[in-house]
Design brief:
Elements (H helix, E strand, L loop, with lengths): L1 E2 L1 E4 L2 E3 L4 E2 L2 E4 L2 E5 H5 L2 E2 L2 E3 L4 E4 L1 E6 L1 H7 L3 E2 L6 H12 L7 E7 L11 H7 L4 E6 L4 E4 L1 H4 L11 E5 L5 E7 L6 H4 L4 H17 L2 E9 L10 H10 L6 E7 L4 E2 L10 E2 L13 E9 L29 H13 L4 E5 L2 H17 L8 E4 L5 H9 L3 E3 L4 H4 L1 H8 L11 H5 L17 H10 L16 H15 L17 E4 L14 E6 L2 E5 L1
Parallel strand pairs: 1-7, 2-8, 3-9, 10-17, 11-12, 12-13, 17-18, 18-21, 21-22, 22-23, 23-24
Antiparallel strand pairs: 2-5, 3-4, 5-6, 9-25, 13-14, 14-16, 15-16, 19-20, 25-26, 26-27
Helix pairs in contact: 2-7, 3-4, 7-8, 9-10, 15-16
């Protein structure tokens, strides 16, 4: 047999064992090891002893948001609220009056002075429209020019406009209140989304990412436009959808659909489209539903108050009965469901809803998910496993925002925070994900943090939740593929599977390599699309 390419002189970690070469034909692996080396080909690539692993797969990211946001004023390194204002003022000097200045990535837990305010933004850019995004994506701060254009008399359920002691808005819009901005900034033009996908995809390839799951398109808090899927298709047509993409559809997009009396598809998208439609490059994934908010923003729904805030237990983004009704209808219509639930009370309510849906309409291989699953008790983790659910926590959070999470929970609940080892011990599949751009989404960083569990201040958060390097690598490959119903195509390197792989300078299963390991090349369908 003559093949398209043979990659050899490598230490190939297949996910099932180790070998030294792989052969590719029509984008798929056809042989490994000596069987691969013996095949005829016009393209024989010497990988110089590099370590090769299955391409990284981010099970929860926001690719369009990240790519578009590369033009924002970066605020993640700011140490004080005054530095935020200085950064906005510097951009104001470069832009014409009346234009929009968008900053992103601030975290009040890391800023001397806490959240920015409209008055501070007014001083920084009095003649511009200013919007500053919290790193979590669950809050925005706007200046007075923007605030004056919002319909503050009609704040959506599941959000709030924060006021100061005098009852005046501070400019901070939390959760669903961010939708008040939509008449001014939504929808994003398709060409802007395509450009964002292009830029993000190039970034991802350089980090060894070959597949992603986009955590919400078409509406809600994270969607860019009601026709967002068209942007993904256009990006693919133009050759700039650089990584395989499974897109989650915002719950607000689903609706009643006309059907015959004998059909059970009464809720979903027009034409009856649902989870699983698409091909190896672009497909529709789960319904994406928000139950609650943010842990570091202290808006997620908790059984007990946040540390130091006896009157704050967070809140739900939608009424509990509506949440349960949406899960029931989507499940009955055949959708996979991914529900954002961070607080322990939100997780309990979501588990009740999943349990009721599965009891009424049993389905063996549903693979419903809990996105983040951030604060979960041992009893609820047992229930998650018994229902066959997939928790999707983010290991990188521990390093970048872990100190803020510890402060929100207090020492009594730290052990329940972003659990990893316990998820595996309970018998669940664990995917690897970043929630980028909430934190740096480089998988090698995420893998290291799943093993180390150190916050940015050096504190150990949940030492019993540390993974081995091999477990962390499996999460970012096979685990994520399983969560997307893609394990038959990606996640391991085997004959018959897509030839998506990353070449690395050191062994990703050796913790001693974590500080120096780097990506040397990334292949999608057997083609090296990135080389260092």
């Amino acid at each position: 047999m003559r093949v398209d390419a043979v990659y050899e002189n490598a230490q190939v970690i297949t996910g099932l064992g180790q070998t030294n070469a792989l052969a590719v034909l029509h984008g798929r692996i056809v042989a490994l090891g000596e069987d691969a080396r013996e095949l005829s080909t016009s393209k024989r690539v010497d990988l110089g002893g590099a370590f090769v692993a299955p391409g990284f797969h981010d099970a929860h990211n926001h690719m369009a948001w990240f790519g578009i946001g590369l033009d924002d004023v970066p605020l993640s390194d700011c140490k004080s609220v005054d530095e935020v204002y200085d950064a906005i003022a510097a951009r104001a000097r470069e832009q014409p009056a009346g234009s929009w200045i968008v900053g992103s990535g601030y975290d009040q837990n890391k800023l001397v002075g806490g959240h920015p305010t409209r008055h501070g933004l007014d001083r920084a850019a009095p003649k511009h429209h200013v919007r500053v995004k919290h790193t979590s994506g669950h809050m925005n701060v706007v200046n007075s020019l923007v605030l004056g254009k919002l319909d503050l008399a009609n704040v959506p359920v599941g959000g709030d406009v924060v006021e100061d002691a005098d009852g005046s808005p501070t400019g901070l819009l939390r959760e669903q209140a961010q939708l008040l901005l939509n008449p001014l900034v939504y929808p994003t033009p398709i060409d802007t989304v395509v450009r964002g996908l292009d830029r993000a995809g190039a970034h991802y390839l350089a980090e060894g990412i070959t597949s992603v799951q986009e955590a919400g398109i078409g509406g809600g808090l994270v969607g860019q436009t009601p026709v967002e899927l068209a942007a993904y298709q256009l990006a693919r047509d133009r050759g700039v959808l650089r990584v395989r993409s499974t897109v989650m559809v915002a719950a607000s997009v689903l609706h009643d659909v006309e059907h015959a009396a004998s059909d059970d598809v009464d809720f979903g998208l027009d034409l009856g489209l649902r989870s699983g439609f698409g091909d190896e490059w672009l497909r529709i994934g789960p319904l994406k539903l928000f139950a609650d908010g943010s842990l570091i923003g202290r808006t997620c729904a908790m059984h007990e108050p946040f540390a130091g805030e006896p009157d704050n237990r967070g809140y739900f983004q939608v009424p509990e009965d509506e949440l349960a009704r949406t899960i029931l209808r989507a499940h009955a219509a055949g959708w996979q469901i991914a529900t954002h639930a961070i607080g322990d009370r939100a997780i309990s309510v979501v588990l009740d809803a999943y349990g009721a849906a599965l009891a009424k309409f049993p389905r063996a291989d549903h693979r419903h998910r809990i996105e983040h699953c951030a604060v979960v008790s041992p009893a609820e983790l047992t229930r998650i496993a018994s229902l066959g659910l997939i928790p999707s926590p983010q290991g990188r959070f521990v390093n970048e925002i872990g100190d803020g999470m510890r402060a929100a929970l207090g020492p009594e609940r730290e052990a329940w925070c972003y659990r990893l080892r316990s998820v595996l011990d309970a018998g669940c599949v664990l995917p690897g994900s970043s929630d980028r751009p909430v934190v740096n989404g480089a998988p090698l960083l995420g893998i290291a943090d799943m093993v180390r569990r150190r916050t940015s201040s050096g504190e150990l958060l949940g030492p019993d939740e540390r993974l081995t390097p091999a477990q962390a690598l499996r999460a970012y490959t096979h685990g994520s593929a399983y969560a997307a119903f893609r394990e038959h195509d990606v996640g391991t390197l085997e004959p018959g599977k897509l030839a998506d792989f990353v070449a690395l300078s050191a062994d990703p299963t050796d913790e001693a390599s974590f500080d120096d390991i780097r990506v040397l090349g990334t292949a999608v369908g057997g083609e090296l699309l990135y080389q260092a």
